[in-house]
Fold this sequence. Notes:
The chain has helices at about 5-10, 15-50, 70-75, 85-120, 125-140; strands at about 60, 80-85. By secondary structure, the protein is an all-alpha fold. The chain has a two-stranded antiparallel ribbon. Helix 2 (about 15-50) crosses helix 4.
Amino acid sequence: MSIIQEFKEFAVKGNMIDLAVGVIIGGAFGKIVDSLVKDIIMPLISVITGGGVDFTQKYIVLGANPNNLQSLDALQKAGVNVLTYGNFLTILINFLILAWVVFLMVKLINRMRRKEEEAPAATPEDIQLLREIRDELKQRPQA
């Protein structure tokens, strides 16, 4: 078997198509969840906390600050050694909120799936017919 033939079989397999669809849907789903967190949840948290949850400007100067610079941008441009822990905190909080939203969405989807699985499936017509024949035969007198 040639390598081209093997690649063709690999690329056309159902798993490859499923993976491609999953990646595309995952990308779109990621944008939806990102928008939900950024546009809906974060503004609500900002209202609840009385301000922003943006800590990106929080930092600690680790080295000498000869010009007594006060802004993070100025410190970084001047090459002063700065520990910018605020950006990490903001990204961590955003991640935790995003993970919580995804968890809740997956939980909701799993609940809907369980309801579908719990619903009794309709008996196929041929099985129903066989049951009727069986019941009819049971009612006949034995010879």
